[in-house]
Amino acid sequence: MSSTTHQLGIRVSGLVHLYPIPEGDVVALRGVDLEIAAGEVVALLGPSGMGKSTLLRLIAGLFNPSAGRIFLGEKDISQYKSRELARLRGREVSLVLQGATNNLIGYGTVLENLVFAADTKASRARAQELLETLGLAPIAHRVVRTLSGGQQQMCALAVGMVHDPSVLLVDEPTSQLDHVSRDLVVELLMRINAEYHTTVVIVTHDPHIASAMPRTITIRDGRVGAEGRFGEEFAVVGQDGTLQLPPHLRHVLPPDSLVKVTQIERGLELRLVEEGDHE
Ligand SMILES: Nc1ncnc2c1ncn2[C@@H]1O[C@H](COP(=O)(O)OP(=O)(O)OP(=O)(O)O)[C@@H](O)[C@H]1O
């Protein structure tokens, strides 16, 4: 077994991203702050369109953010030029796109896909090792398009590991998989983390993946809305002191509510100010 020796954590601070479109800018991220330790496994959760994929792509170095900083280890990649980002993507960070086949050559075998993705002697040697370590040796000579969805996804994850990345980013790895394949994919992600100590960040809608993760980060309205530890959810106070209410409690304090905030022994008490309270 060879292991990643250059583990990297991720630190994101005040991250904002806008997509300019003719009708005006779409604000995808509006101030994300988060820290993921080297070697951690984290799932990014949240409703559709809330900015998860944008965050994953920015960490992957596909493009620069509109504002804010992204640190991989000590390096601030937020203003990297496109050539520096390309070097980063080829080595330290690996992004597995949604839809396994978007990462694979369908007419090639599993081994051919791994070897094709490998462009150095070290990564070619690693291709063979990955097949063994990740339990893909029995399907090494199968043509990718003849594999099940779960096997294709496992192959895509192995391809993502060919360059021995410090950070593996995975977009929706279990969408359209049955529960048996889904469990195998989750198991493989955990095995990758355990064997290679790779930092793993997974974007998912799948509550089963979320419940299998030691840590979840929920992105809501372009910010970190909540964090989960072993299935239990917590609201997160942002750098600017803002706190998003959990969705199931939002009706208690609807937008524009006046709230009295009082410090109590272990936290704060929030009390809705009703009309007539001051009379
Ligand atoms: N290339 C783009 N051009 C314009 N707007 C975009 C682009 N990509 C994403 N958006 C918009 O940015 C916002 C965040 O999108 P993003 O894909 O990051 O969310 P998401 O949480 O990953 O959603 P999903 O779970 O559906 O993939 C959405 O309003 C989306 O429509």
TrEMBL record:
Residues 10-246 form the ABC transporter domain. Its EC number is 3.6.3.-. It comes from the Bacteria. Pfam families: ABC_tran (PF00005). One of its GO terms (molecular function) is ATP hydrolysis activity. InterPro entries: AAA+_ATPase, ABC_transporter-like_ATP-bd, ABC_transpr_LolD-like, MacB-like_ATP-bd, P-loop_NTPase. Keywords: ATP-binding, Hydrolase, Lipoprotein, Nucleotide-binding, Transport. It is an enzyme of class 3 (hydrolase). One of its GO terms (cellular component) is plasma membrane. PANTHER family: IMPORT ATP-BINDING PROTEIN (PTHR24220). This is Lipoprotein-releasing system ATP-binding protein LolD. The lineage of its organism: Bacteria, Bacillati, Actinomycetota, Acidimicrobiia, Acidimicrobiales. The gene is lolD.
